[in-house]
Amino acid sequence: MNKTALLSLSLSLLAMACTPGRQAGNNRQIIIQEQGSFAAGGTVIKNPGTFDPCKPTPDGQTFSGDHAYVFYQVPANARKYPLVMWHGIGQFSKTWETTPDGREGYQNIFLRRRFGVYILDQPRRGDASRSTVAATINPTPDEQQWFGVFRLGIWPNYFDGVQFARDTNTLNQYFRQMIPNIGPIDIAVTTDAASALFTKIGPAILVTHSHAGGMGWLTAVKNQNVKAIVSYEPGSGFLFPEGEVPEPIAMTGGSLAAVGIPMAQFMALTKIPIIIYYGDNIPDKPSDNPGTDGWRARLEMARRWRDVVNKHGGDVKVIHLPEVGLKGNTHFPFSDLNNIAVADLMSAWLNEKKLDN
Amino acid sequence: MNKTALLSLSLSLLAMACTPGRQAGNNRQIIIQEQGSFAAGGTVIKNPGTFDPCKPTPDGQTFSGDHAYVFYQVPANARKYPLVMWHGIGQFSKTWETTPDGREGYQNIFLRRRFGVYILDQPRRGDASRSTVAATINPTPDEQQWFGVFRLGIWPNYFDGVQFARDTNTLNQYFRQMIPNIGPIDIAVTTDAASALFTKIGPAILVTHSHAGGMGWLTAVKNQNVKAIVSYEPGSGFLFPEGEVPEPIAMTGGSLAAVGIPMAQFMALTKIPIIIYYGDNIPDKPSDNPGTDGWRARLEMARRWRDVVNKHGGDVKVIHLPEVGLKGNTHFPFSDLNNIAVADLMSAWLNEKKLDN
């Protein structure tokens, strides 16, 4: 091989190594400094009476429930603030793990970016299903409806250009990401457990999805260790100062109400940077498609909320992804086909806010 | 600092680095080649009728459930056969993760020993709680009873020398490891899902706990990718050839029955190496303590089973841990205070059987 050929080969190898998304071999390893799991928060019920070990009945026994379950990983050379990832309605930790089509989700993506990652199952869900309240659960067929609400398309058709793989195995994995609540979702219970997590681990950045959006605001009100919030498609529970609560926003099949809290509590939300992202295929005007129309109302409410928080000195930004060039995102931008680009936006914001030291 | 002092300091640092259990810095890192999660197996219910996206009802919709949920990690330079870890009754993946007192469990221990680790939540449990059958769940206080059945002691007293930390936070974490079934445990459903996992990942070693013991034997009957089984305190479901099923063994509060299967199926269990471990504080003779007496019956049944499998050409070993010098183990030897020694026994057996290449 002459020198020119050798140089050419070297340049080829260099080009391969530098091609985004084609990292090979050891570049793909994740070095974990520490990983594990624990229960955070929760309560204990104590039955009256005396426990008899030889003739056990519920008398005198305890029941510990309503905690969150947390699995965490801290990479080598971790950045200062870890990320706490909180799933949405009917979901669990899977939201952030392997995507339905088998790619890496936010868990791995942000471990690679040297963030500690704490993923929770909220109280009464999944691995935190030791609920202190009774529940009856029925397997009600609902997947075609979620296909619409999660904005994959209008069953059985996908939206043009939707960032979701169209094979049946992907859809099979996606539907199996949903699990039931064991008893009602109790906002005080879930936010107490999330707050207990922040008390245990110290200052961290909260990343919420959908129904966890509103619970995330409330967790930040409860605990100053919430240093920032990244919220994907928050669904409900926007907290306004009492006296400044907007009228509910009408949407197909109902309306979206806001929540009033005392000004002293509200002000906590003006002290931290917050960014909100919504995906694509959200109608501009009222639509008779209940799958998408709710998201029009929520995006509108998020913008009203941004304006009120910022008026009181806050730092809230609302990004409608198509407006910044990311098209086709569903209700799950962090696991969509373009989730690296979605994560890049989040990384840039964390950098801008000096949250990635 | 003079040369002697410098040498002395260097030797001190060297000594610190070499003290067992005090590995510092990079020695404690786990290098992950790949990690993620997926649903394995399961079924789909389809409701009759036609789905209308604009007026959704359950008509024409599907429900995908009864799969196992699996979180896996493959370390760098992994050994040939990964470990599939299957929790016991009322438990989930937590069984194998951080111990109740905050040390590393089998997940980390065996990643460090270069095994791929697949941990499942069985169908209708935890993160696999999308059950195809209806369920009513009541939070019944039961923790003092489990304290006895899991052989920590006789409430409120711990057994002398029990391998379990006695602080309240440990017990709090321990009790929160229990979660409900969403609907009845269906052995065909759980073993079908476990078998689907082995079909997906290929040859692997199954590690079971307690109630998963019997389901583990059945999974090996169903799937030849089960290359070996390590079973901690199997509780029920010992499979004998029809015609060779022993009488039930009486125990306080009931009896322990064995299960008959056709000889052709049974013979699968003679083709793979199997090791069974039981912990300490199991009575030799019938006892009126229902917390411990069941384990006497199960240990006796395990030995009968060993003899029958081995008579037909199998390779089953039953280890009662106190007999090999490990004292004080509970129903959870793999998370007990001496779990490194317990893991060392397992590693030695895997090595003896050439399962750790």
UniProtKB/TrEMBL annotation, chains A, B:
Lineage: superkingdom: Bacteria
Residues making up the signal peptide according to the UniProt record: 1-24
Keywords: Signal
Database matches in SUPFAM superfamilies: alpha/beta-Hydrolases
Signal as UniProt keyword: yes
InterPro entries cross-referenced by the UniProt entry: AB_hydrolase_fold, Carboxylesterase_BioH
Protein name: Uncharacterized protein
Native organism: Flavihumibacter petaseus NBRC 106054
